[in-house]
Amino acid sequence: MRRLDIDAVVLVDGGTDILMRGNESDVGTPEEDMTSLAAVAGVEVPVRLVTCAGFGIDAYHGVCHAHVRENLAALDRDGAYPGALTVIEWFRQDVERRARRSIPH
């Protein structure tokens, strides 16, 4: 990591089950998340972040999104929740239009 001058690692979870604490009725796929978290914890970099992409996509694993929101609120109280980003439709369309214009045909 030092040789490459990497100063941050961002762990991306597809869904939100990485936010489960283990005391919920269903926690999604904890084995995958614990493995990923352990790998990131072992990396010596100044910044380590976890982000969740796709709120709601892991409901089929039994993740209760009321628990997700409770856990986000707890992280926020502890100063460990930097916020959320939602890509709204007009923004997505604008980015797509700009990308298409910049790609030679």
What's the short story on this structure?
37% of the residues lie in helices and 13% in strands. It is an alpha+beta fold and 105 residues long.
The total count of helices amounts to 3
Query: Mean pLDDT score, rounded?
Result: 88
Radius of gyration: 17 Å
Contiguous low-pLDDT stretches (5 residues minimum) are none
| Strand arrangement in the largest pleated sheet | 1-2
Globally, the shape reads globular
What's the total count of β strands? 2
Give the number of domains: 1
Helix and strand composition category:
alpha+beta
Helix content: 25-40%
The string of secondary-structure elements, in order, is EHEHH
Strand residue percentage: 5-15%
Query: How many strands, what sense, and barrel or not for the largest sheet?
Result: 2 strands, parallel
First-residue to last-residue Cα separation: 39 Å
